[in-house]
Design a protein that fits this description.
- There is one protein chain.
- The protein is an alpha+beta fold and about 60 residues long.
- The protein has one domain (about 5-60).
- It is about 40% helix and about 20% strand.
- It contains 2 helices and 3 strands; from the N terminus they run E-E-E-H-H.
- It has helices at about 35-40, 40-60; strands at about 10, 15-20, 30.
- The protein has a 3-stranded antiparallel sheet with strand order 2-1-3.
- A hairpin with a 4-residue loop joins strand 1 (about 10) and strand 2 (about 15-20).
- The model has no long low-confidence stretch (mean pLDDT about 90).
- It comes from Microbispora oryzae.
Length: about 60
């Protein structure tokens, strides 16, 4: 389990990585286990959305 000090977030309002103390969680993606993982948050979300959309297409067939 991650401790609070090990958590990183990607702020959608400011488009930057933040530690636990930052903008409200409603404006952020995360938490992530590392600063670099948080920096890739938008890429990760895009990849997951594409995978989910493909599964939906397969389900509909």
């Amino acid at each position: 389990m991650m401790s609070v000090s090990d958590q990183w977030w990607f702020c959608l309002k400011h488009m930057r990585v933040e530690p636990e103390k930052g903008c409200p969680n409603k404006d952020r993606l995360g938490p992530y286990e590392s600063e670099s993982a948080a920096a890739d948050a938008l890429k990760t979300a895009s990849e997951r959305n594409k995978a989910w959309a493909e599964k939906d297409r397969e389900w509909d067939e």
